[in-house]
Amino acid sequence: MKMKINIKVGFLIASLVVMASCADMFDPALENIQNKDRLRERPDMVQGLLINAYLRIPTNSFSFSEVATDDAVTNDLNSGLLNTGVGQWASNYNPLDQWTNSQSAIQYLNEMLAEVENTQYAANPVVNQMFINRMKGETYGLRALFMYHLLRSHAGVADGVLMGVPILLEAQTANSDFNIPRATFEACMQQLYADVERALELLPNNYNNINNESMMPALYRELGAQTGEYNRVFGDDAKQLVSGRIVRAIRTQASLLAASPAFNLDNNQAKWADAANYAGNMLAEIGGISGLDPNGVTWYNNVSMIDNLGAGDNPSEILWRGSVGGPSNNLEQQNFPPTLFGNGRVNPSQNLVDAFPMANGYPISNPSSGYSGETPYTNRDPRLRQFILVNGSTAGPLNRTINTAQDSETIDGLNRVERSTRTGYYMRKLLRQDVNLDPVANTGQRHLQPRIRYTEIFLIYAEAANEAFGPMSSGSFGFSAYDVIKAIRARAGVGVENGDAYLESIRSDQAAMRQLIRNERRLELSFEGFRFWDLRRWKSNLTENVRGMRILNQNNYSSINVENRVFRDYMIYGPIPYSEMLKFSALQQNTGW
């Protein structure tokens, strides 16, 4: 009898389990999917829309797109960028695509604009309004940033017209019309500038605590904010969020793009003047030429500064950066030479090495330079050895000598193993030499990840001012393109002993100064993701083959061809993704793709 009761109870329990399972089949359990009403009750979730955009900023990491240019190659034979450089760049294969990433970010930002005022962030109404204003300002600034990256990657000539991308100002829903045509490049730039202006109306130039109300922007004095309330929203805790200064830097970057030959088809000099003025105003705030950070060349390896950097603080070279984070060795693992337990991924080219002048400032091709092909690394621009490991350089925590010769007895030699250099050079820039990858004593260190450096702003000014005003005109800022380049080269240790005689010889020659400015930009911003885009906006030669250096017997130097660059003329512009063209008939593809 007892057994029968147990069987019945067991059957009943089993039946209930089955019934519950069946119920789940027809009435699914509640999922953790938040609707907009719940979203509005959670300020942190609303701010999550903004955080999603921050996480998509393209300069959150280094792209190393240089390996698709004349500046470098990679020994990673599976690299999409390698394929790009050798002719396999296509509308359905674009490792440098920004369409999906930046459009997604703009979708989050548009959603943020729609929702930001529907949530309470603080009980105090003044503080609450300041939070709303700050987040709206950040949102407009970031939307301008992503428009810039979209234009750089996907703007181009279609049917004879310089086109941009679709302008999206509202969040798209399931009921939206996704078949939106591209706006003109000029319309996109005007929208970018409009977003900048909206951001600047709401954001302070910098985030920092203030101690009296006179330091507060007029908008927030008129709102009736107290100093403590202002500091709660716009004080030190907000450092590294998008500020007015950062938004102005974004505008400066975008204005240079718009003034450049590939995007300024009628050579409108006013666009060069705009770029020069935007950059000049920013530089004037840090003292002009005197604001050039004397330690800015080695910003990535200024160990004491990086290790002691306070929360949210920037060294004077860095205008905007990502999180420093904890100790890591990823960059070194990828790029140290094999004898330092690295993969030697980015291999600088002989082309780039040749771009470094002699220490006296003359290009190595100039008869007055004193360059010798038998001792090619002697008396060169100090940046050469700071940025590139040449044969005989020392590197790593033990200052090990790196032998890149073809007949080297180490695996650092030319093409010795799959991790070895293909060009006879290894990248040194960006890498901390106190990282130890030895498995027995593996260590990491803190690294800076700049989003915008002041040296870039100086170089934007030099390039734009040279085009708009000529090399020697100081305009309203008190410093010229010539002054900027002289200061940058002097900081690097170039032309110091002879007064930079080469620069003095071309000081009034706009065309020669243009080439020097472009070369300084190539050197100063090397391996930071600029060269690929600079060659295109300048409409420069994209097919200069990549060369390396073969060394035998430690003193027999010969240039070798390493990798051909295969680009068509129309590839100064990037493509609209093929998948988008298939889906949306209103889109026009850039000519040639």
Write out the strand line-up for the largest beta sheet, numbering strands in chain order. 1-5
Q: Helix/strand/pairing class, anyone?
A: mainly alpha
Radius of gyration: 28 Å
The parts where pLDDT drops under 50 for at least 5 residues are 1-30
**Overall pLDDT level:** 93
Proportion of strand residues = 5-15%
Distance between the termini: 83 Å
| Shape by Cα distribution | globular
Number of strands: 12
What does this structure look like?
- The protein has helices spanning 2-26, 36-40, 43-54, 80-88, 99-115, 125-154, 185-202, 218-222, 227-234, 244-259, 269-284, 303-307, 330-335, 350-355, 383-387, 454-469, 481-492, 501-505, 510-524, 531-537, 578-583, and strands at residues 72-74, 156-158, 161-163, 318-321, 346-348, 388-389, 394-395, 400-401, 426-427, 450-453, 546-552, 556-563.
- With 593 residues, the protein is mainly α.
- The strands form 6 sheets. A two-stranded antiparallel ribbon has the order 1-5. A two-stranded antiparallel ribbon has the order 2-3.
- The longest helix has 30 residues, at 125-154.
- The radius of gyration is 28 Å and the shape is globular.
- 43% of the residues are buried.
- Residues 1-30 have low confidence and may be disordered.
- Belongs to the SusD family.
- Residues 337-593 form the RagB/SusD domain.
- InterPro entries: SusD-like_N, SusD_RagB_dom, TPR-like_helical_dom_sf.
- Keywords: Cell outer membrane, Membrane, Signal.
Keywords:
single chain, mainly alpha, 12 strands, 41% helix, disordered N terminus
Give the topology, please.
Layout: H1 2-26, H2 36-40, H3 43-54, E1 72-74, H4 80-88, H5 99-115, H6 125-154, E2 156-158, E3 161-163, H7 185-202, H8 218-222, H9 227-234, H10 244-259, H11 269-284, H12 303-307, E4 318-321, H13 330-335, E5 346-348, H14 350-355, H15 383-387, E6 388-389, E7 394-395, E8 400-401, E9 426-427, E10 450-453, H16 454-469, H17 481-492, H18 501-505, H19 510-524, H20 531-537, E11 546-552, E12 556-563, H21 578-583
Antiparallel strand pairs: 1-5, 2-3, 4-10, 6-9, 7-8, 11-12
Helix pairs in contact: 3-5, 3-6, 5-6, 6-7, 6-9, 6-10, 7-10, 10-11, 11-16, 16-17, 16-19, 17-19
